[in-house]
């Protein structure tokens, strides 16, 4: 079989629009020759941005998988807890835990009030209870609430109690302040001596002090020489 004809390629070249003019750009050549580092840096920046984008997408996928896994674990844990509570409820009612239908639609709603009774149900709280500490002393009054009592009366009584305790605290603070004002280590009529404030001497004061010291030393030396004679 003969090889295919090359007329198609020749016809395609003939149909192309001929180039009218070829121009040489010195600026384009200069930019190409001096732009290797710039193009390399651009490729690095593009690769860095692509890596950051892929890392973000991977982190989003990991978070989604973690949320789904936590959701499954939570559902499993809740189912196990409900199963254990149902078994305990059955034991409290005197039934066999094996007879409980695990596929029942109703969920466990807690124990019955008849099964467990608090030991202190019949006990009455005292009207007043005192609490004593080394530094503090307080009295707590327990009163039964009257449902028919007006809210305004309750608010007024609470405000009165608050004012009473505030007055007591103010008296304690005043007493403590008076105790702090007293100074038992000082005698009657004696005032605390003020501490002398330290300050540096000026140049003139230092010169005068040295002159006084020199004159005092010279006078003492003359007296010693007079005694020796």
From TrEMBL:
It comes from Septoria linicola. It comes from the Eukaryota. Keywords: Coiled coil, Nucleus. One of its GO terms (molecular function) is rRNA binding. Residues 209-219 have a biased composition (Basic residues). Residues 36-63, 87-229 are annotated as: Disordered. Belongs to the RRP17 family. This is Nucleolar protein. One of its GO terms (cellular component) is nucleolus. Residues 43-63, 87-97, 154-178, 199-208, 220-229 have a biased composition (Basic and acidic residues). It is found in: Nucleus, Nucleolus. Residues 121-133, 144-153 have a biased composition (Acidic residues).
